Structure formats: C-alpha cells, structure tokens
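User: Reviewer 2 asked us to show a designed sequence for the structure in our supplementary figure. I'm pasting the structure tokens here. Could you produce the per-position amino acids so we can include them in the response letter?
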C-alpha cells in the first residue's frame, strides 16, 4: 500500500451517491468500477443518500418478496391449526373421568 490517502470533494461524493442510487449493481461492484473502497461508498451513502432518486424495485425482487410472504402466511396458518388441535386435546384430556 502506498500510504497516501485519496481525498474527494463534496460534489464528487454527492454525484457518486447519485450514480450508485441509479444503478442496479451492488456497492461492491461499483466500488471496483469506481476504484473507491466499498466501505467509503457505504459511508457516503449514509451521509448523502436521497431516496427520491432511487429506482423502483425490479419485478423479480417483488415476486421473491411475495413468495416469501405467502410462505410465511402458510406457516402461520399451519401453526394456528396445530394450536387449535392442541387446545382441543387439552380440553378432552382435562375432563374428569367418571
């Protein structure tokens, strides 16, 4: 390592964050492309990020989230059904025998 630190002006940082928000690439990919450490880009995102310039989520991600939601809803329904069965069993076995 050379030991010298690269300094960037505020305008460059803001433009870089805007560029990152407009891309569909990961921060790591953009760090390689821009020759700026990914950690630095994450810090800039935290400071200069403006949410109104981010692209709409792609449909593949929306479908993935919908699938995950359906799986969770199905799991909840299964657990609720299991709970109802357990409640009935407790009721049956808690009755006094004559």
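Assistant: Here is a per-position design you can include in the supplement:
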């Amino acid at each position: 390592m050379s030991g010298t630190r690269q300094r960037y002006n505020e305008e460059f940082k803001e433009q870089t964050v805007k560029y990152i928000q407009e891309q569909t690439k990961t921060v790591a990919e953009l760090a390689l492309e821009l020759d700026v450490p990914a950690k630095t880009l994450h810090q800039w995102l935290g400071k200069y990020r403006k949410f109104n310039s981010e692209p709409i989520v792609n449909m593949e991600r929306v479908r993935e989230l919908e699938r995950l939601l359906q799986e969770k809803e199905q799991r909840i329904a299964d657990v609720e059904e299991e709970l109802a069965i357990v409640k009935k069993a407790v009721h049956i076995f808690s009755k006094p025998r004559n």
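For the response letter, you might also mention the following. The mean pLDDT is 83. The helical segments are 10-22, 27-34, 38-48, 59-93.
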